[in-house]
# Entry
Amino acid sequence: MLDKKGVSYKLAVTLFAMLMTFSQSTSAATKVEKSKDDLNQIHERIEKLKKELDSNTEAHADATDALKESEKAISETNRKLYELSLQQKQNRANLQSLEQQKSGLESTIQQQKQLLGAQLYEQYLHGQQSYIQVVLQQQDPGAIARQLQYFAYVSRARAKLIDATQQNLGKVAKLNDQTAVALKEVTDLKANQEKERRELQSQKNERGTLLKKLSAKITAQRGEINKLKRDEKSLSDLVERLARAAAATPPPKRTPRKTDKTDTSKPQVPVGRNDTLPSNAFDGSNFAALKGKLNLPVRGEITNRFGAAREDTGISWKGLFIKSSEGSDVKSVASGRIVFADWLRGFGNLIIVDHGNGYMSLYGNNQALLKKVGDTVSGGDTVAEVGNSGGNDANGVYFELRYQSKPFDPLSWSSIR
# Structure
């Protein structure tokens, strides 16, 4: 029989063990409940972010459509300005030609005036005597009539020449006035077009800024959603572990959460520079014979290689992006026919030249398209102006070469290596 002290000691130990087990179970259960509450909050936050993301994605699409319209309008306005510049240049050339004609006629008239003045002065001194001498000295009436007829013919010819010269001078003056009026109209119209272009450019800048903000917001929200999903998974795993260990002793140790790997990718280093523009030297040649001889469409820095992964999407490059100054001429690399000239999502203002036999060249992100579908072009012809349409950050031209619709490396066909 145990003494009272031994019984009391064993009872105390048993009670303490039961209390510890209960305490640990209660603690684990409390952790489970708290983790479930945290999990519910994460669920709610994810759903809220998804709704905001849907709204911002829709707003981004609307902003992209608005930017598309702005860039198409700017392209059309720039094309009209280009045509007006050509018309203005032609009008100035016409005006200069008319000025030269007018100057020549005025010189001729001045000579005729001097000759006429001398003739009139001579006639004034000797004219009456000459007529009298003709009448008195000639005995033959027929000779008198012929001489008088000669005088009349000379007088009529002189008057006719003066009248014709004056009429020509009047015509030149009239054409001069008409050309000057046309030149003023073109100048005024060009000024209005310039004003419209500036307003459209301002709208484009505003919409581009909005688009960038929405893109950044969407990227941030997607990043937060992905992070929350990772947190949700980690927390779900923890809840399951805690639930399984709620009755166990000791409670399970919490495993540390894995951190995200940092992006060690580096921006691509520029691969080269182009300083030579296309020309019409190979017009008439089969495009397939131009391999290794082509010049790129603009002067500038080549920022990528064909087939390399894009930094923004990871998708392989199907062409080259050449950084260049805004408004610079974009040249057709060879002769051909324009088969597309419009705005296209992801490419902005895009122009495509068909070179025949399945070969095509593409020029994207332009500020303005200067040719229309159906136009024929020679190598070296200006087809567009450099810009950043399509939501691009930098000014430049996206350039592709395709055969039977499949892209191939432009550098392999270029004189640049």
About this structure: The first strand starts at residue 272 and ends at 274. Helices lie at 4-137, 141-244. Confidence is low (pLDDT under 50) at residues 249-268.
